[in-house]
Write a structure and sequence with these properties.
39% of the residues lie in helices and 21% in strands. With 435 residues, it is α/β, with parallel strands linked by helices.
Length: 435
C-alpha cells in the first residue's frame, strides 16, 4: 500500500510539471476525457461521413483497418419533405452492390438518420467511432476541422445566415446524429477552412469600414481543392506545389494554390460568385441586382431565386446539367455553343490571372463532375497556354496527365476528388490523437 501511495504521489507531481498542450487540429471545446470515452481506438473502427442537403442525405461509411480507410457502405436518402405528401427514398450500396432500394416514411433529417443508424449497425461490423459532417460555411469561427459539442453547435446555428441554402441542413444532420449516434465522435469539416490562408488584400471587400470586413471573400469547395492538390503533389513527387485548381461540376470554383495553400479563389462571400454554374449566375455587375428590384419589380426572394436557381447553364440553354450541355454542344445547339464558350472563356480569364499571380506553376488541375470527364472543356480552357492531349486519358485513373508534352514545366492533370475520403481522414486525425 505504501508503494502504491508513493507511485500515485509521483504521478501527480509529474502531472503538475507537464505543460498543457492544445491539439494542432484546434479542439478547444471538447475535453480529452469526453472524447476518449466515446472513441476508444482508431484501428478496427468505422467512420460515417454525411453530406446533408435541403431534402437529402448522402453518406459513406469507411472501415479503418490494416488496409487503411476503405469504403464499405454508401448511399443516400432523397426526397425528405416536412410536408408529408410523398415518402422519401432510400438507396444503399455495399461494395458497389445495391442492398436496399425502397421508399421510406420519414419526414425529417433526424428520423432519416435514425433509420440510417440502424442500417449501419446491421451492416457494419466495426464500431462506429466518428461521424464527419460536411459543413459548407465556417465563417471566421472555424478555420480548422472541429469536434462538435453543444457549444460548437450553438455557434454553428448562430452563423447559419452566412449560407442559408446550405448550413441549416448541415446543422440538422449534426443534431440528428447527436441524438441517434450519441457515442460517436462528431466532427465538422468546413468547405471554407482551406481558404483561411487567403491574405486580406485578396479577401476583403472595398465596402466602407466594418462592412468591408463583414462582407468579404470566404471561398468554398475547400475540402475538394485541398484533396486534389495533395494528390497532385504526390503524383509529381513534390512536397509542395503551385497550382491552379478547377473544381467544375454543378457548382464551380477556381483556386490559386501557392505552396499547397489557397491564396485566392473565385467564390466569395457565398458560393454564388465566380464562374457561371449549373443554376448560379456567377459574378455579375451588382447594379443588375438593383435594377431587377427597382426597374423590374422583383422582390429580394425572387432575385435570390433567379441568381441561385435559374441562371448559369440553366438560364442560357434550359438545363443545369453539364453533361447535357456538352451533348447539345456537339449536336450543334447554338444555345449550348454560347454557354460552353462563355463558361470556358470565364475559366480561361481566371487561369491567366492566377498564372500571373503565381509566376511559376507546377500544374493545372481539373476535378469535379465536369472537370474529371470533359476533354472538350480541358481543351477550350487550356489550349492557348498549356496544350493538352487525351491520348492516355482514363477516367478510371486517380490522376491522368493530359499535357501534350509531359516534359513541360507546367503539367495539366485530371485528378479524381473524393471529399468523403478527405473528411474521413480528418476524423481519423482526431481519433488517433485522442484515442
Amino acid at each position: 500500500r505504501i508503494q502504491i501511495l508513493f507511485e500515485i504521489m509521483i504521478v501527480k507531481k509529474l502531472q503538475t510539471m507537464l505543460p498543457v498542450t492544445v491539439s494542432a487540429r484546434k479542439m478547444p471545446l471538447c475535453t480529452r476525457s469526453s472524447i476518449s470515452s466515446r472513441c476508444l481506438t482508431s484501428s478496427n473502427s468505422s467512420i460515417l461521413v454525411l453530406n446533408c442537403g435541403s431534402t437529402s442525405i448522402k453518406f459513406k461509411v469507411f472501415a479503418n483497418n490494416e488496409k487503411g480507410l476503405t469504403n464499405i457502405l454508401d448511399g443516400n436518402v432523397s426526397g425528405i419533405s416536412k410536408e408529408k405528401q410523398t415518402p422519401a427514398f432510400l438507396k444503399v450500396k455495399q461494395q458497389k452492390e445495391t442492398i436496399i432500394s425502397e421508399s421510406l416514411n420519414v419526414y425529417s433529417h433526424s428520423s432519416a438518420l435514425s433509420v440510417l443508424s440502424d442500417i449501419i449497425a446491421t451492416n457494419v461490423k466495426n464500431k462506429l467511432a466518428a461521424v464527419g459532417h460536411r459543413i459548407v460555411h465556417g465563417g471566421t469561427s472555424f478555420i480548422n476541422s472541429t469536434v462538435i459539442d453543444n457549444q460548437v453547435l450553438a455557434t454553428l446555428k448562430s452563423i447559419e445566415n452566412l449560407a442559408p441554402l446550405h448550413n441549416p441542413h448541415n446543422v440538422a444532420g449534426v443534431v440528428g446524429c447527436l441524438n441517434s449516434l450519441p457515442d460517436a465522435l462528431q466532427v465538422g469539416v468546413f468547405d471554407t477552412a482551406f481558404h483561411s490562408t487567403i491574405p486580406e488584400y485578396a479577401y476583403r471587400s472595398t465596402l466602407p469600414g466594418q462592412l468591408g470586413h463583414k462582407y468579404r471573400k470566404y471561398g468554398f469547395h475547400g475540402t475538394s481543392h485541398k484533396f486534389v492538390v495533395e494528390r497532385a503533389a504526390n503524383y509529381l513527387r513534390k512536397d509542395k506545389i503551385n497550382a491552379v485548381s478547377f473544381h467544375l461540376g454543378g457548382g464551380c470554383s477556381v483556386t490559386c494554390i501557392q505552396n499547397n495553400k489557397s491564396i485566392d479563389t473565385t467564390m466569395g462571400y457565398t458560393p454564388l460568385a465566380g464562374l457561371l454554374m449549373g443554376t448560379r449566375s456567377g459574378t455579375i455587375d451588382p447594379s443588375i441586382v438593383l435594377n431587377l428590384a427597382q426597374d423590374e419589380g422583383y422582390s429580394v426572394a425572387e432575385i435570390s431565386d433567379i441568381l441561385n436557381n435559374k441562371s448559369g447553364f440553366s438560364g442560357l440553354c434550359g438545363t443545369p446539367d453539364g453533361n447535357t450541355v456538352e451533348q447539345m454542344f456537339f449536336e450543334g445547339d447554338p444555345r449550348a455553343k454560347l454557354a460552353m464558350e462563355m463558361f470556358c472563356y470565364q475559366a480561361k480569364l481566371f487561369l491567366g490571372s492566377y498564372v500571373a499571380v503565381l509566376g511559376e506553376v507546377d500544374c493545372v488541375i481539373f476535378t469535379g463532375g465536369i472537370g474529371e470527364n470533359s476533354p472538350v472543356t480541358h481543351e477550350m480552357i487550356c489550349s492557348s497556354l498549356y496544350p493538352v492531349s487525351h491520348d492516355h486519358f482514363s477516367r478510371s485513373h486517380a490522376v491522368s496527365d493530359i499535357s501534350r508534352d509531359t516534359t513541360d514545366r507546367t503539367r495539366v492533370l485530371v485528378v479524381k476528388t473524393d471529399e468523403e475520403l478527405a473528411i474521413a481522414r480528418e476524423c481519423l486525425t482526431f481519433i488517433e490523437t485522442e484515442g
